[in-house]
Amino acid sequence: MINYLTGCAGRSGYGSRSTADQVTDNCPTLSSCTAIITGNSNHLLSIHNHTPIHAHAHDGIPHYPGATSGIGAETARVLAKRGARVVMPARNLKSAEETKARILSEFPDSEIIIMTLDLSSFHSVRSFVSDFEALNLPLNLLINNAGRFSHDHSISEDGIEMTFATNYLGHFLLTKLVLKKMIETAKVSGVQGRIVNVSSGIHSWFSGDLIRSLGQITRDKSQYDATRAYAISKLANVLHTKELALRLKQMEANVIVNCVHPGIVRTGLTRDHSGFVTDLIFFLASKLVKTIPQFFRKILENLFT
Questions:
Q1: Keywords assigned by UniProt (predicted)?
Q2: Alpha-carbon torsion (195, 244, 157, 209), positive or negative
Q3: Which of 4, 14, 64, 224 is catalytic?
Q4: Are 227 and 202 in contact (CB under 8 A)?
Q5: Is 168 a catalytic residue?
Q6: Ramachandran region, residue 215 (left: φ > 0; alpha: ψ -120 to 50; beta: rest)
Q7: Number of neighbouring beta carbons within 10 Å of residue 255
Q8: I need a labelling partner for 175 at 20 to 30 A (CA). Which of 2, 34, 69, 196 fits?
Q9: How far apart, in Å, are the Cα atoms of 154 and each of 12, 62, 84?
Q10: What is the pLDDT of residue 150?
Q11: 10 Å Cβ neighbour count for 106?
Q12: Model pTM?
């Protein structure tokens, strides 16, 4: 905790005050790499624990942005700065175009591709993958950064509770459909592929009561609890990461997958819910709160270290 508060470097060589730019300062050029950064532009994040995990996690309560705002935009900006071809899936194409314009104003030679994707829809995920494959591009990096925290119970077009559909099933299907391309790219290029699932330690809030938990992700809104539904979706992310890591190892694929808890950050979500209580909480926690570039630093560590 002391190291975290003071920003002292950890085993990776970086601390809680390090930024994404600092992490990538000594990285080789990414000009031959293609990265997909998932997200829904209207879902932003609040609180996380900052410890990265492979098979375990700690505490945190996040809400994640897409590639068109907050952390997603910072992800795209830094990868574009380092020369990577960036694919930004988005539901809000106008917002995506604005993000692209901002990045190009800073790095005019960047290659940024905007594509339509709604992770709560299986049809949309399959259409996105089909359109991406038609581009005949390699795929080196997949950052599953999107997330949803639904205060009100809602159902996706596939008949699934919206939080679970967006946070877990959409990413699961996307990862499954692009995995072959990632394995092929790594084999041909000799460059290890990386998948990063941005998750949350709130998964540890799972009570172990399977029947009650299943009630959070069904059509029955009488049992719905937003926080518990979110926790279940994040637990599914962690379990998916563990199982996928095992299978990739068994396949001897040159692709690895990590699950990460980036830290505490204040972005648009908390501004959307501003008020005395929110402002007081973040004032008291100001020593722990990260900026967006500092938050993204943990994602970069999982990509390049």
A1: Oxidoreductase
A2: negative
A3: 224
A4: yes
A5: no
A6: alpha
A7: 22
A8: 69
A9: 41, 19, 37
A10: 75
A11: 10
A12: 0.76
Structure tokens, 179: 């995995």
For residues 50 and 7, the answer to whether their CB atoms sit within 8 Å is no
Other CB atoms within a 10 A radius of the CB of residue 287 amount to 9
For every residue of 142-189, DSSP letters joined together read EEE------SS--B-TTSSBHHHIIIIIHHHHHHHHHHHHHHHHHHHH
Residue 88: helix, strand or coil by DSSP?
strand
Q: Exposed, middle or buried: residue 151 (CB in 10 Å: 0-12, 13-18, 19+)?
A: exposed
The β-bridge partners of 214 are none
Residue with tokens 């790219």: 185
Contact call for residues 105 and 24 (beta carbons, < 8 A): no
Q: 122-134 and 170-189 are packed helices; what angle lies between their axes, rounded to 10 degrees?
A: 20
Q: How far is Cα 27 from Cα 144, in angstroms, rounded to an integer?
A: 21
Torsion of CA 198, 236, 201, 220, to 10 degrees: 120
**Exposed (0-12), middle (13-18) or buried (19+): which is 276, by Cβ within 10 Å?**
exposed
Tokens matching residue 256:
């690895």
Q: Which residues of the chain have pLDDT under 50?
A: 5, 40-69, 266-274, 278, 281-282, 286-298, 300
Q: Do 115 and 89 meet the contact criterion of CB atoms below 8 Å apart?
A: yes
Cβ(240)–Cβ(197) under 8 Å? yes
- CA neighbor of 19 nearest in space, from 74, 58, 66, 59: 74
- Among residues 258, 264, 269, 271, the alpha carbon closest in space to that of 295 is found at 264
Comparing C-alpha atoms, which of 94, 198, 178 is closest to residue 133? 178
